[in-house]
Amino acid sequence: MNDLDRKQKTEFAGGRNECLDRIRAAATFFVVLNHTVQLMFPLHPDGIARMSGVRKLFGIGLFTAGRLGVPLFLFLSGYLLLPRKYDTGRIRRFYRHNLIPLLVSWEAWCLVYEAYMVWWLKTPFQAGQWFRRALFLEYEGMPHSWYIPMILGVYLFLPYVAMGVQQMEGKILFLLLGMVYLYRFCLESVNLLMDVFHVHPWNLRELQLDLNFSGDYYGFYLVLGYCFWRYREELGSIMKRAWAVILVTAVFAVSAVFTVWIQIRILQANYDYNVWYTFFIMPVLGSCAFLLLCRLPQPGVFRGLVTDISVHSFGVFLVHVMVIGVLLWKMGLWANLEAQCLLVTVLTFVLSVGVTKIGGKIPLLRTLLLVKNA
């Protein structure tokens, strides 16, 4: 038995998996942290120029930590959904129980966000704008609202991708993942850095290899999550060894420090960029975080709390930006921005879990919040 497959109970078989609950809870916190930092710190060239060295490190450091949330969520989706066996009936069931509820919930939340922006942010309601947003023809306007349309697009073809990757030999699967990583993640990152630092020894922009059918960046994260499931026993055995934990921790630390440093250098070069999930280090950071969170010991006293957060994670995702907005409006910005950022993050996290838990007791809200079964 290993940490990645504890008690031989996986969520897609109806049980709870402590490792996956822990990762989902951590990912939820990281997302809240990310948007709190985004809404409080001026992470652009002019803002960075006015910050002290400590504030730069604090802001960019927490922002980078927050960016781990999305890779972890995508890994979990790949881990849980791609190993399933799909036939015609199961594909229909997947669409009925995964895709359609998510779509209905999101359409309802588009209305909630419009009401929030009219009531709280005092922006005028425009029926045409709402209609375009409901049809995915325009950005919703909230900092987290890009994620659900992306997931809906992934879900459209996920059962068919699952049938394909399950048939792939391991060597072929890793070869294809390596090609996507090299040509999509690494190439884009090299182009970015050459632009920032005005170094152009080669023209690397005109990629002739069409990789759009590969699932692109986010499909890469999903398939990597599937690999964590496929090789869970091997990874679990390796991560029991002290040298493996030390190595993964060291890779994580070096990658995190580099990512923080390069973002500061990019902003100081007057280039407006915050690290995105297409940056070549992000899959490395996310993978290390996934493995370390599975290896992390969890005292029994926290088991119920972690499960509770995991069960309500989607609801927290949906409401947390509105909670941050209300808290910042009530509190204003303090001189000690660092302490306030930590306080707002924790308060937002706790309040969002509480709101989702209370709302989840009402059948309609439980459906709209997509509260998972405990």
UniProtKB/TrEMBL annotation:
It comes from the Bacteria. It is found in: Cell membrane. Residues 18-354 form the Acyltransferase domain. Keywords: Acyltransferase, Cell membrane, Membrane, Transferase, Transmembrane, Transmembrane helix. InterPro entries: Acyl_transf_3_dom. One of its GO terms (molecular function) is O-acetyltransferase activity. It is a multi-pass membrane protein. Coiled coil: none annotated. One of its GO terms (biological process) is enterobacterial common antigen biosynthetic process. Its main location: membrane. The chain crosses the membrane at residues 25-45, 57-82, 102-121, 146-165, 172-194, 214-231, 243-264, 276-293, 305-329, 335-356. GO terms for cellular component: plasma membrane. Belongs to the acyltransferase 3 family. PANTHER family: O-ACETYLTRANSFERASE WECH. This is Surface polysaccharide O-acyltransferase, integral membrane enzyme. It comes from [Clostridium] aminophilum. The lineage of its organism: Bacteria, Bacillati, Bacillota, Clostridia, Lachnospirales.
